[in-house]
Each structure stands twice: as structure tokens, then as C-alpha cells.
Specification:
Layout lengths: L2 E6 L5 E10 L5 E6 L7 E6 L5 E10 L2 E14 L5 E7 L12 E7 L5 E5 L8 E2 L1 E2 L5 E3 L4 E5 L5 E6 L5 E7 L5 E6 L14 E5 L5 E6 L5 E7 L16 E6 L16 E7 L5 E6 L4 E7 L5 E5 L11 H9 L18 H9 L6 E2 L15 E3 L2 E7 L2 E4 L4 E2 L24 E2 L9 E2 L15 E10 L2 H9 L2 E6 L1 H5 L1 H4 L12 E7 L7 E10 L6
Antiparallel strand pairs: 1-2, 2-3, 3-4, 4-5, 5-6, 6-7, 7-8, 8-9, 9-10, 11-12, 13-14, 14-15, 15-16, 16-17, 17-18, 18-19, 19-20, 20-21, 21-22, 22-23, 23-24, 26-27, 27-28, 28-29, 30-31, 32-35, 33-34, 34-35
Helix pairs in contact: 1-2
Length: 530
């Protein structure tokens, strides 16, 4: 996919979301160009030799270069198992890594890839010491939160690290589905008895279809998902593609849903990687937009935010007045095709609205990055079926339940390839690969199927000596998978999947020679797998 867009059907059609995507030869995105907010949300990516993301530079893209930088996140030192040995973040485009919410983070990890310490100001002393329990669950992030788990390693509570006050808490059904959440829903500043529990109803595919308040018989909201193929049970749609939400809108969110009516309907607009990027009313007008950092930190764009700075203020009204009479999409808030008094009325009504960094929604929207369910109290954490993703540190809170059979790092999100892969189950072995520029399908059929074998290669003495001198992690795409296709892929389906069958092997020869035998792990991304 080289363009992702949402278009309002008017006399002259108008895109209200539009992104152009470029790729390298391995289908890794190299850039995304935002045609609605051309100043600030373009991204240029850098990819290493293992197809892992090392730089996401945001601003204005021109001739392949970012100018007028707004934000940047870098991973200049990734370990072979995918740990962020160094990561850097800055949020105002000045190249300084020490401002508010920014960092130059040097991390240490133990042998099972748990983070031990974080030195975020490069002074050689750890700012934060993290703690994991014996099962590998993160119990203390050293900075903001502590975490409590049940006997099945499921997240039960998030607490404020300074006060030990509960920030959010969760319960589960016997089948593992998250049953409900409890947080400061009355916005009093504390989680207490006046804050009601909200309970979830699910379909067979572990998707939330309704939310109930406390003991109410009627839902506060319900959701309709895309279910393309096989009478609603097929894989023609990404599992978390959303159609719409209906919500009780004539009482407060914490109030009872007594009349059984869901007065408000909003439609979800998702981008090429299934992030929720806009909500649209049943009348076809915008309610809000959102953008996301590479590992899921949301940046909310409230209604009326014409400059994309995360708030609605006088500067936005000035931009709107400057676009008067045109069809500039970022200012056409009611999506009628013309910037006029109706849009100005909206900007004035929304004056003072704020979202921005780590703020997903002002409309109680619970779905965002890859359409994962946000932790309403901690907007940078996402509940993803088997696990929870902490996008602030870019990794899972707990180990992969499949263990190291799924990946060499139980905590790494999507093998450090967040721009091209999704993990809607929270299990590395079930990655969904996003449609590429070359027209491949979404790699749902057998993504993450693994096999194991001993592979024998005949090498020259010089090749063997070189490997002995520099043991490293080798990754080969296409050529080896074709030669040894019978080992890892079923060739009967044709050659399409061979290009995406990868072999991973840690080559550590003990002596020089002409023949070597070493184990390898393969993962087939498309086609049939055996």
C-alpha cells in the first residue's frame, strides 16, 4: 500500500486523512508523508540490516529530507536480541534530548532481556532501577508506576509509584478475557467506590463488543467490527478493524445507562497500519483525530486543532480564517467541503481543548494504536489480549507466553519492526504483517509458524575462518529459503511465500573447516507452512 486515505463523498471529493508511504526492497517503510498536516507529521525512517527500526524523524518531508523538525525518536544501539541498549526521544525539534518527556536513555539488561536500569541523562548514573518478579513480570518501572499481577501473570493493578494509590485495576474471566476495568471515571483525582467498574462483553474472536457500567442491564457503549469473509468468520479483515461505536450520550460516563438508548454514533477511520486516526459522526463531521509514535504513544489532535499542536487556541482560529472559502481539509471540521462560519463556530466552541502527547481521546474512545484497547488511566499502555504493551518503554510488561520458541526476546514488540508488523494477540508467534508496497496480502494465514532443524552448509576454508573470527546473528531472506524451502515452507502453493520465509541462525563455529552444522529457526509469513 502506497497511499492510505479517508475521503468525504462531496461534489468535489475531499480527503480528510491522507498518507503517502514509501518502502525499501524488504517492504520496510522508509517514509510517510501526511497530506493533511504537511508541516509536522511527516516521518522519515531508518532501518538496520535486520530490518529493525533505528530512527523515526518527524517534521516536514522534502526531497527525502526532514526539515522543520517537530519530534524525533532514535534507537542507535539495538542488541542482537532486540533490546534498546540506547534510545533517544525529543519532542520539540530542537535536537536536545533532555527537555520535558525527552531523554537520552542508556539501558542495561539481564540475560533474559529484562531491563535493569535506565540512565536517561547520560551522566553515567542510573536514573531509574526497574524490577521484575520471578515470572518476568515488570513490577516497578522505577519512574511512574508499579504493577500487580494475578497468579496467571495477568495485569491486575497499576499504581502510582510515589503514593501507592491505584491508578487502574482489572479483572478477568476464566477464559483469560479482560472482564472489566476500574479507574477514576468520575475524575475526582482518586480511584474510589464512587468510580464504577466497567465490564466488557466479547465476541468469539476476543473483541470487545459492549461495555456495561456497574450492574446496569443496558450497555454504555457497543461496537461493530469488520468481519469480512466466511460469513463474518473469515480473515479478510484485520481482527481489530472497527466499524462504529454507539454510546449512551444523554448521561455522564459514570452515570447509569437507564433508558437503554445509545444516542451517539461515531465511525472509526483507521490508517494503513490499522491505527485509529479519526472519529466521524453519523452526520459526517469530524470529532477528533490522532497520530502515533512508532511504538504506540498517542498524540491526540482535538477538534479545531488546525496546526496539529495538540490543542485548540487562537492560532488555530487564525489558520482557519486564513483558509476561509477554501476546502483545506485540516480546517474543514464539519467536512462539508468549504471553510466557513460553521467551522469557525466549532473552533470557538472548542477553544481550550487539549490533547497532544500521551492523550488519545476526549470522546471516551478506547481504541487507538493498531486498534488496541488503551488503558484509560495510562494512555501510553495498551491491553492486547494476552499481554499489555507499555509504549513509553517500547516493550511488553510481561514475557511472551509462548516463551523463547516464539522469539529470542520475550519482551520485544514485533521484533523492533513496529512500522510493518502488528501483534493483536500479544503473542510474537501470531504477528500480522501489514500489506506492503508489492501487493502481498496481510500475511495472516500462517504468520509466526515456526520450525526447527539442523542445517548443514558447505563453506570454503576462508568462509569458515571468517565466521570463526566474527560469530554473529545471520538473517537471510529469499535465497536460502528457496534452496532449503522444503525444510521450512511448503512449495506446493507456489513461490510467493518463499520471498518472506526467513532463516535465523546464531553461527558460532568452534573450529575452521569446510562443513558446518548449526540449528536454525524459520518463520513463514505467507503461504502454507509445514
Amino acid at each position: 500500500m502506497i497511499k492510505s486515505r479517508w475521503t468525504k463523498d462531496l461534489a468535489t471529493d475531499m480527503d480528510f486523512f491522507s498518507i503517502d508511504i514509501s518502502y525499501d526492497e524488504n517492504s520496510n517503510p522508509l517514509s510517510t508523508e501526511d497530506n493533511i498536516y504537511p508541516a509536522g507529521f511527516d516521518v522519515k525512517y531508518a532501518i538496520d540490516g535486520l530490518d529493525r527500526l533505528t530512527d523515526a524523524d518527524e517534521g516536514t518531508l522534502s526531497s527525502g529530507t526532514i526539515s522543520s523538525r517537530t519530534r524525533r525518536q532514535q534507537w542507535p544501539a539495538l542488541s542482537q536480541t532486540g533490546n534498546w541498549d540506547v534510545s533517544k526521544l525529543e519532542l520539540n525539534g530542537d535536537g536536545a534530548w533532555g527537555a520535558t518527556n525527552a531523554y537520552n536513555d542508556t539501558r542495561t539488561h539481564n540475560v533474559v532481556n529484562e531491563i535493569k536500569t535506565r540512565d536517561t541523562d547520560t551522566n553515567g548514573t542510573a536514573n531509574y532501577t526497574l524490577t521484575h518478579d520471578a515470572a518476568g513480570n515488570l513490577t516497578d518501572d522505577g519512574k511512574d508506576y508499579t504493577y500487580v499481577y494475578d497468579a496467571w501473570n495477568r495485569l491486575r493493578q497499576i499504581k502510582n509509584r510515589s503514593t501507592s494509590a491505584v491508578v487502574s485495576e482489572h479483572q478477568y474471566y476464566g477464559n483469560g478475557f479482560r472482564a472489566g476495568e476500574h479507574y477514576d471515571s468520575d475524575v475526582s483525582g482518586t480511584v474510589e467506590s464512587s468510580d464504577k467498574w466497567f465490564w466488557f462483553g466479547y465476541d468469539e474472536r476476543w473483541r470487545i463488543v459492549a461495555t456495561y457500567r456497574d450492574t446496569d442491564a443496558n450497555p454504555k457503549e457497543r461496537f461493530v467490527h469488520h468481519t469480512a469473509g466466511a460469513s463474518g468468520y473469515g480473515s479478510g479483515s484485520y481482527i481489530d478493524d472497527l466499524g462504529l461505536r454507539e454510546r449512551d450520550a444523554n448521561t455522564s460516563w459514570n452515570g447509569t445507562a437507564g433508558d437503554g438508548m445509545l444516542e451517539e454514533r461515531l465511525y472509526y477511520c483507521q490508517n494503513w497500519r490499522h491505527d485509529v486516526v479519526a472519529l466521524v459522526t453519523s452526520g459526517g463531521a469530524l470529532t477528533e483525530r490522532a497520530r502515533y509514535f512508532s511504538y504506540g504513544i498517542p498524540f491526540g489532535v482535538p477538534l479545531g486543532d488546525c496546526d496539529g499542536h495538540g490543542d485548540t487556541d487562537a492560532a488555530d482560529q487564525a489558520i482557519l480564517l486564513g483558509a476561509w472559502g477554501t476546502s483545506t481539509p485540516k480546517c474543514d471540521l464539519n467536512l462539508d467541503g468549504t471553510i466557513d462560519g460553521a467551522d469557525n463556530t466549532i473552533v470557538l466552541a472548542e477553544a481550550g481543548a487539549t490533547a497532544g502527547w500521551e492523550k488519545l481521546s476526549r470522546n471516551h474512545n478506547r481504541f487507538g494504536y493498531a486498534a488496541y484497547a488503551v488503558d484509560v488511566a495510562v494512555n501510553s499502555d495498551w491491553h492486547v489480549r494476552h499481554r499489555s504493551l507499555a509504549s513509553g518503554v517500547g516493550r511488553w510488561l510481561v514475557r511472551d507466553r509462548l516463551g523463547e520458541a516464539a522469539a529470542p526476546n520475550d519482551f520485544a514488540y514485533c521484533g523492533d519492526r513496529p512500522a510493518i508488523a502488528l501483534d493483536p494477540t500479544g503473542l510474537m508467534g501470531s504477528l500480522t504483517w501489514i500489506k506492503s508496497a508489492f501487493g502481498m496480502n496481510s500475511f495472516n494465514k500462517c504468520a509466526g509458524v515456526h520450525c526447527y532443524a539442523d542445517l548443514q552448509l558447505t563453506l570454503t576454508a576462508a568462509e569458515a575462518a571468517a565466521l570463526t573470527a566474527s560469530p554473529q546473528l545471520y538473517r537471510t531472506v529469499a535465497k536460502i529459503s528457496v534452496v532449503f524451502g522444503s525444510v521450512c515452507c511448503d512449495n506446493s502453493a507456489g513461490g510467493q511465500h518463499e520471498t518472506f520465509c526467513e532463516l535465523f541462525s546464531r553461527v558460532q563455529p568452534t573450529s575452521a573447516g569446510t562443513t558446518m552444522v548449526f540449528p536454525f529457526r524459520s518463520r513463514a509469513y505467507a503461504g502454507n507452512s509445514t
